[in-house]
Design a protein that fits this description.
single chain; five-stranded mixed beta sheet; about 700 residues; 29 strands; ten-stranded mixed beta sheet; elongated; about 25% strand; alpha+beta; about 25% helix
Amino acid sequence: MSTQDLVPSPVGPVDVEQAEAALVERYPRLVRIAYLVLPPSLGRNRRVLTAHALVQRSLPRRRVTGPAVPGPRPAEDAVDPGYAYVRGEVLRQALVAGLPLRRLALPRRAQLPPLLPHVWGLRLFPRVGGADELALDQRLSRLSGPGRAAYVLRGLERQGDAEVLRVLAAAGVADPGAALAEADALDDREDGTAGAAPEGPDDGGDRSGGPAGDGAGSGDGPAGTGGGEPGSGSGAGRAAGRRSGAALLESDEFDPCALQARPTDLLRRRQHARAGVVAVAALLVCGALLGLPGDGWGRNGAGAPSYARNPAAEAALDPARLKRVDPAVWPGSTRQDFSVWPARGALVGDRALLRRALAVWARPGASVRSSATPGTPVGPPMGPPQLLFAGVVDGARVVLLHDGLRAVRYAEPVAGTAGAALDFARTDGADGVGSAALVLSRAAGNVRYLTAPWVAETSARNLLAPGEEARPLGRDAGGVTEPMTSPASARDCTRWNTLQVRDGSGLRLLADLGELAPARLLWGPPEAPADATGPEARAAWARTACQLTAVRAHGVRSVNAWRFARQPLPEGAGLGTWLCTRAETWRGTGSRVLAQFLVPSPAVPAALAARSEGSPACGVRDPRVLAGVLWQAPAGGWYVLAAGSPDFAALETSGGVKGRSDGPLLAVKAAAGARADLGGTLRDGTRARALR
């Protein structure tokens, strides 16, 4: 018989009500079938609970067509369609429950311990039968799941072989014939056992009802004595074995509805209960301590609710409450800084964009690229910030905000939401020049600025070409400049563009050092510096501009270059120049000082003589400076050259090179590679060390 012949043909639709009626009416029998088909290795307690769970999960969810009931069928095999459907579902789930778990495959529902029904504190199992029931249970345990199903269908359900094959095929058994062969083998063993049984009372139904011969014997003799050779009457003997097995299958040993109860491991349960009580008590104590008011372990102490529920914080996140300055305010204002910048840009009315910008500022996600200048707080705004700009620039939606302490730039791509960026820069105490421009966009090595409303003219000036005129840099009506090449990320120093702006007081020179706020370039003594826009200042900055890379992304507010000494060079090599460059920061600390030496040739860049961080040298508080270099004359001789600010009365070297001079200049003959310690004496007699 082929497998195709075993596919059932439906006899009609099955309603949920019809299946439920069959399940309720024959519930004990269905549970017994599930119990017998489940593998005994599960243990009796779990077999009982799983059998009940499988039967209770066997109802259809909707009207279905045709249970595993083939047609046409003999009259003696006629089965109620609802019962046939539920029995097929029980068999299918029981066979799945008996499959071994695989390491990489997800377990199916029937293979897991049942959630319902569930029993706490008790172990349930059927009543214990006799020796015959125990022997049958052991023999069933050696069969496969399909083999047990075939045995149960034939012995308990009284089905013929053809019907058994069809039901097994409908339940998903791959080889119903092999399963039936297993059941036949078990029947043969029962036949041999029954034929060899001695005379005695019948305590197992028809277990000893006939020999294994031709089936005509009296049943009280050994196998083969019933009038035929052994095995010649195997059909009648197998039928007798089936009747014996059916009687045993219906005994209390295999009835999961007539149960006995015993307690679980009482000592272990007591230990688990104690551990649970201790854990709950510990959690209660910790919760009480964390919730103590005042100086207790409260999570926030006297703090306000979390950010999302704080009224002031909620106002800071509301785009409708953003501060927007009217364009007519700044001309009549007594101050010129970011507080009087009007809101500009085509997207100042895009509330969704502004809401995203404020939300990212308050709670930047893991995908947001964030940067901040040193010493700049990156927390949320303390209240509604001021809107400076919102618009599309270089393929990105850009929002500029200001909260009195910081300028914040939010950018997101026009297409999509990935790649949002958030930049912070400290701008407290900015004056009219410090608030003249902010970086709006950097793209493809170029930079765009948003200029203040009082800026009348913008141009681009190359610091390395002091003789060239500044190139006009156009702006749109909102104050956004055209792009120009930025030195912020350049790898070489062949061009150093700066932004030159003209306001009501004159020209200013601003340099992009990789931050939101450009740095102001100055020239002159620390007590009275001026904007580096004159010819002398541009000539000096042309030779020292490349040293600005030392102060990139350092929160620099302004950079001042000061010529503190001129020195005649030995061997008539001309006149050398000493510069001190000081970078002041917005935070007030971390200033950097560079001492540089310039040879007479204007084409040679400045040589870095010394550098220091956090030193007051070259500043308003301490405008004194002392530095030295090892210099080679054009003729080949080596010298230690040193120079100090005019406050020095004498200089001296020690160590590898010894020398002394009266005044702020010193030149001592030295060997190539020589090292010396440099010091000086101020006019008031105070000793001072050189920058290192």
